[in-house]
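Contributing new records

If you add data, match the layout below exactly. Sequence lines come first and carry their own label; structure lines follow with theirs. Keep one chain per record. Anything else will be rejected by the validation script.
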Amino acid sequence: MKMTFLRLREDIKCVFERDPAARHTLEIITCYPGVHALLLHRLSHRLWNLKLKWIARLLSNLGRFLTGIEIHPGAKIGRRFFIDHGIGVVIGETSEIGDDCTLYHGVTLGGTSWEKGKRHPTLGNNIIIGAGAKVLGPIHIGENARIGSNAVVVNNVSSGATVVGVPGRPIEQKDGDFKQESILNSSGEFQPYAEVSGLAGSRNSNTESIDQRTEEIVAKLDFLRERIEIIEAKTDKK
């Protein structure tokens, strides 16, 4: 019982540290679905380990209904885990999450196989996964890694790396396509909602190229129409 209250105090403290919108303890206990989902998971995980798997799954589904967060009771989660906003988060059965990790809404820790056994990701300590990101398969995400919003990660990520894009790839620090500063704020902190400037620039470049090609096609069609009109006029005269 003492350990349970200690963990709850840690959970509340980490919410204050990671969410500037948190105002007081009562608000966190009553209004944060990520905290509710985590508390229900701890109970369902204990039931799962006691081989009471049907009851564990039933409790897990109740948690999904109440919070919009689906955590399989078989998943292993470390201390000071925080799910911000929470809606749409899915954590698969064989997922393993280290200490001090943060997930934003829409994150999936999913599998890529229908076979039994290890099929979900393993996260090290102090990892942040941005909104909408998908981390798939039995891969390992190293400590202190950062995964940008809407990235799709299917390969191992080394410690301290920042991964963005589809498929996910590490940001190069100097001469690569992306710049580290593009997903950092003025204080040098990772922005889980940031749009990477390199990706945005690539999209803008592609859009400009498509617009240019469209204009060329329209010009050629106008030329062909004029030629057809000239030919029809000559035919009518004959």
